[in-house]
């Protein structure tokens, strides 16, 4: 009787990851119907998915990701699940490391990992290593992600984003001239130098086996603040054979502008990791957690709704107007009380 | 006299304290010439000097260790500001005085006497503390459940009897489920006649209690009884102890919400019950929430019933509130509240007087209403209710049009109004009254109430007549609601605003989501309010109805008037069910629909209704005036809300153009996105809009997306339309990136400036700007005095101080200026000191202190974060916080729960965490309880109590071998931990559990079978049991043999290639390869040649599957009086016993007395010839060695006298003669004999010769007669020789085999051979010849 009301039901393929992740963590089965029901080629064998979660096992794994989406697509879900495994996760993912759709591995490494550290997920084995780079459409990249296991998470109070003290970046190029990266760096610096002098953009030109299967280049920028907040922006070149060729100068300049946009949005967590921060706040102890965010992305908004239906948790949302200060746009302060989640997979010794 | 002597004999005792002792000590010190110093360390410092650095270090370590040992891991203190009442469980064996103690305690705290106590009783015990007292009997179900919710256990012990098993059982249960505070209470102390015996008993019991709980645990003594009650002073002391007691948070309790229900109502639609008595019920439970925050729609477990999803939660005003002002020292009489609805105190439903009066006799009280409403009661209830519905539907318009004092605005207000319920104490009767008061009365307080009281005295008759005459007050409130609904509908049509999502105020929205998510915010909140209003309005006349006889009169009058022919109890029931009206909104809808269809029932009622209305008018003004007078501040806020509402409506006037059908999916979506865009730009209004954008439009039930939502929601709402809008993006790309839609032009200076301050290069805040902080420091620390030189350095003082300094110098005479300067100086000093203090204190801080500080900070934040918000909003964010009095609705509750409700049994709702509602594999560490007499068997069903649950399951016990293999155990070890795994509900690791074999009846022995802790929650371990495969050689080469019978196919053999095999006699070998000829045969090589008689076996491990059996103990569903008789699945042993089936043992397994043949050894015989040939050393030494004769044995030489010598010589001579004579005689006789023998032989020979001749003659004659006889006789002689030959050859063979085996088998293995042989033979015994697996486990 109870199991009937226990499971949740959704329609459509969007937010599939959210639903599966939350279903796994909350232990509630989920049914997703009408997955691309109208399409002639839905891409699946059926249009309905029923997911009954179990317990997370972890351990050493390898997975070949689809080249249609970046590794970031998979990593984002893994970041949510990895701390709650039975054994520490150590996974090798193969596929596209940097593309134009998903947050790249570089950005996740620079922003999501420090965020997880705020929640007490830390240790020697906590790392994300880019072994090979792979650009779309060919892929061929390889990433090693390992994460320790935690029983409980710490509550956070991230209300002061601090001031940006440095900007770091990574200009990468594979199977193109190594000069591309340098050109990107110069153009990006030209814009950012107006704000802060402490800028260093690494160039990363991978060769041979490590350069994947397709040519491409790109830039990811990260701004670090005095209170340990990381804001990021990134841009990648068009995949081979799709769209017009992109000039590295333009790419650098646009990416720098994107970073300025991100800074304008502000907050203590950058826009891609909003949902991750909110999830970990929800899964904290029964204490108050606070986080200051920039404008909520549509993905985050949907995530908040999902959090409500899976965990019955509602966030207190306060808008902080920008006012007179020259600190970018409006901010949103989100507050919640954790549900007192504990890792049921971890063995008691 | 005797006593006098004993006194005299007593020794003098020196004083150890007091002035006399001190004086003496001083004198002693003076005698020693040590002066006044008492501290030896100071007096004689040398004696305490460091002698050894190592010892010093050790002692330092030790003190540090002891210090650290005292630390507990700091936890965040999550107790709410207004904590729930403390649960005091009074436990003890029967007839120990539990009920008496509870009654005495209640009387002590509240000055009230409860005659019959059923279920929990909540009382206010002090300014900051309330107690919920509950009695615990000896049913193990009840003991387990109550141990999980107890904060304090009063453990009653009959001192005249001593400890009883229940006490120890309960202690053990408590230990497993987090140890609550336990206080022992000794009763029956008056049964001791001798004081000495009493003292001894007390001491004995105290020390036993201490060993069980902890040394120094408080044990209370209740000596004698006065008039059937304990002595006042003792009870008072006990009460004091309870009131000041401090509690440690228990892990399970603080991490889970739970509720000890003190009231239960059945909300099932009577129609459903009428059609099917056994239908699942809808039930609401009331109680204080405890532990953690409870979220709506979460999962709960009701021990004894099962798992449920909470269908709705709402909080109610505290029925037993703490006093408001805290200034006084003690409570006044009015504040000493008691609340025990199940016992008939304080609640509406089980209100004492009402029940008495309405049931018309004390016998009605005997049968508890909630315990089991009888069939006819239910029937009559149904009929009443349906008429009410019909009536309500038909009469609403009439009432609305007629009731002039209730204008349309008033009704509107009424909807927004939330009346408060207040408990009042009638000073004269000591009863608690539940009175509905409204916002305006809040401030005016007591005087208003009194006025009301007076007025009600006057109005009682009128009101009673009017309201009861209306058949029911509930009907009235429903009518009001109905009217309002209609009005709202009209409003919708008129304005055509899509108010639902945005036009409402913040609070309303929050309120709404608790109720029905799918409903539009505005409407739903109104509904709820009106419903709540309805309840108040019902409770109001109820409070009046408490007036005893008047109530009776009124009731009877009403029944007469109505002439409905209904029995009085029915009426009461109807009233009570309607009382919970505010949750039956759905029902109301339903009935509304019915009425629209036009039910024939209503017409009759309509008439009476219309009659009633004018009469009702008389009482209406006063009532209405009391009820609907606009409140001062609440109303103001409400009106402002309305203003907001209107304002926002104006803002979105353009949306008015959307008609109901055009406000479809697309439009809605456009609307949303536009607003979302605006939300980020706007400032103040943005907050609620953003929240609504996220939560407001999302319905909880996604199932409702399908189908026509209008039908499901009563044809009123269209909220799921935005969801439909969402469907457009339902199939879009799943990406977390947030692309920039309208990028800024970052080349523009002003755009660039907008983020200037985000960088360290920008401007800093006041409190962080380095320059400012530096300046402040200068001001604070600027001037200092050099103590050595005496110079005073002046800092650069601010302009104001400088002026003052100047002034100081110039006008030194001005006293005021001097004073201010001085003050300033002092201030500065104080500040410095504070800073220093703070720094100093922090400087000493350890990791532990830091952690503690962090936790404290978090606790403060937790408290402060939602403090300023009202409860409605708070509930949305943090859930229902502990301490609230809540009402929880559950659906699909088995009907037995309601039908067999027994208030004596605790009803607990335990909240479940995430995935705790799921069922899976659980592993635990288990130990059989040392007092339990039997051992536990694997696969025997057993009842576990884990978390909130009690359930029966089939565990498998296992133990981990040294190599990490988990080996199945048939039985639990006696005094050791073992593992256990079962299929059951998932409970977090580290949770304690206990196991009992049965929860039914009373067993003579200790009932708790095992205890332990949950370790793991998945199927990660593999439990295995031993499996032996046997085979037989069919062909033997030298060391290679062909074995058959072990496997069935070549494939199986292939799987086991290389596996180690062995024969029973201990010859080891290996499987080589499968053979073609008989299926499953293989070639194997051994370390020695096998015999055909050998049995070959292989030891393997076979994984065991865990039976998926999970059966919750549903003891609360059992009929009254049989709650302790739940019995689930029976063990095979029990079944066998019941069915009389005897197990047939395997013959080979039976033990028989072992008969051993005695071994007989022949003496060793060495032939003489051989003996002669042997060298000397090997020659058998037959004669014993002539050892030295010991001296005492040596006979002394005899020296004879001459006389004796003569005699001796004579005797010698005589004997020589005699012997000579004898020899001669013997020779002669010998010769004679020889002679005689020779003669006899001669005679014999002659005789034989004669006989021979005679035989010869005879044979010759016979031979001539038949010739074949002689031949046969010869043959017989040959056959007789043969068997002996065979026997000897066999013996030879055997000895050879034995010797070879002995040579190849190590001695230790040799010993095991018989055992193994036995096992194998057993195994073979099991097997039928056709079977391939030989199995022997052990």
TrEMBL record, chain A:
<dbReference type="Pfam" id="PF05189">
    <property type="entry name" value="RTC_insert"/>
</dbReference>
<comment type="similarity">
    <text>Belongs to the RNA 3'-terminal cyclase family. Type 2 subfamily.</text>
</comment>
<dbReference type="InterPro" id="IPR020719">
    <property type="entry name" value="RNA3'_term_phos_cycl-like_CS"/>
</dbReference>
<protein>
    <submittedName>
        <fullName>RNA terminal phosphate cyclase like 1</fullName>
    </submittedName>
</protein>
<feature type="domain" description="RNA 3'-terminal phosphate cyclase">
    <location>
        <begin position="10"/>
        <end position="45"/>
    </location>
</feature>
<dbReference type="GO" id="GO:0004521">
    <property type="term" value="F:RNA endonuclease activity"/>
</dbReference>
<dbReference type="Pfam" id="PF01137">
    <property type="entry name" value="RTC"/>
</dbReference>
<keyword id="KW-0539">Nucleus</keyword>
<dbReference type="GO" id="GO:0005730">
    <property type="term" value="C:nucleolus"/>
</dbReference>
<dbReference type="InterPro" id="IPR000228">
    <property type="entry name" value="RNA3'_term_phos_cyc"/>
</dbReference>
<dbReference type="InterPro" id="IPR036553">
    <property type="entry name" value="RPTC_insert"/>
</dbReference>
<dbReference type="InterPro" id="IPR013792">
    <property type="entry name" value="RNA3'P_cycl/enolpyr_Trfase_a/b"/>
</dbReference>
<dbReference type="GO" id="GO:0000479">
    <property type="term" value="P:endonucleolytic cleavage of tricistronic rRNA transcript (SSU-rRNA, 5.8S rRNA, LSU-rRNA)"/>
</dbReference>
<dbReference type="InterPro" id="IPR023797">
    <property type="entry name" value="RNA3'_phos_cyclase_dom"/>
</dbReference>
<feature type="domain" description="RNA 3'-terminal phosphate cyclase insert">
    <location>
        <begin position="159"/>
        <end position="263"/>
    </location>
</feature>
<dbReference type="InterPro" id="IPR016443">
    <property type="entry name" value="RNA3'_term_phos_cyc_type_2"/>
</dbReference>
<feature type="domain" description="RNA 3'-terminal phosphate cyclase">
    <location>
        <begin position="47"/>
        <end position="317"/>
    </location>
</feature>
<dbReference type="InterPro" id="IPR013791">
    <property type="entry name" value="RNA3'-term_phos_cycl_insert"/>
</dbReference>
<dbReference type="InterPro" id="IPR037136">
    <property type="entry name" value="RNA3'_phos_cyclase_dom_sf"/>
</dbReference>
<keyword id="KW-0690">Ribosome biogenesis</keyword>
UniProtKB/TrEMBL annotation, chain B:
<feature type="compositionally biased region" description="Basic residues">
    <location>
        <begin position="1280"/>
        <end position="1296"/>
    </location>
</feature>
<keyword id="KW-0342">GTP-binding</keyword>
<dbReference type="GO" id="GO:0005524">
    <property type="term" value="F:ATP binding"/>
</dbReference>
<keyword id="KW-0547">Nucleotide-binding</keyword>
<dbReference type="GO" id="GO:0005654">
    <property type="term" value="C:nucleoplasm"/>
</dbReference>
<feature type="compositionally biased region" description="Basic and acidic residues">
    <location>
        <begin position="1228"/>
        <end position="1248"/>
    </location>
</feature>
<feature type="region of interest" description="Disordered">
    <location>
        <begin position="402"/>
        <end position="552"/>
    </location>
</feature>
<feature type="region of interest" description="Disordered">
    <location>
        <begin position="1218"/>
        <end position="1316"/>
    </location>
</feature>
<dbReference type="Pfam" id="PF04950">
    <property type="entry name" value="RIBIOP_C"/>
</dbReference>
<keyword id="KW-0597">Phosphoprotein</keyword>
<keyword id="KW-0690">Ribosome biogenesis</keyword>
<dbReference type="GO" id="GO:0005525">
    <property type="term" value="F:GTP binding"/>
</dbReference>
<dbReference type="GO" id="GO:0000479">
    <property type="term" value="P:endonucleolytic cleavage of tricistronic rRNA transcript (SSU-rRNA, 5.8S rRNA, LSU-rRNA)"/>
</dbReference>
<dbReference type="InterPro" id="IPR027417">
    <property type="entry name" value="P-loop_NTPase"/>
</dbReference>
<feature type="domain" description="Bms1-type G">
    <location>
        <begin position="83"/>
        <end position="248"/>
    </location>
</feature>
<dbReference type="GO" id="GO:0032040">
    <property type="term" value="C:small-subunit processome"/>
</dbReference>
<feature type="region of interest" description="Disordered">
    <location>
        <begin position="578"/>
        <end position="667"/>
    </location>
</feature>
<feature type="compositionally biased region" description="Acidic residues">
    <location>
        <begin position="640"/>
        <end position="653"/>
    </location>
</feature>
<dbReference type="InterPro" id="IPR007034">
    <property type="entry name" value="BMS1_TSR1_C"/>
</dbReference>
<comment type="similarity">
    <text>Belongs to the TRAFAC class translation factor GTPase superfamily. Bms1-like GTPase family. BMS1 subfamily.</text>
</comment>
<feature type="compositionally biased region" description="Acidic residues">
    <location>
        <begin position="504"/>
        <end position="530"/>
    </location>
</feature>
<feature type="compositionally biased region" description="Acidic residues">
    <location>
        <begin position="439"/>
        <end position="472"/>
    </location>
</feature>
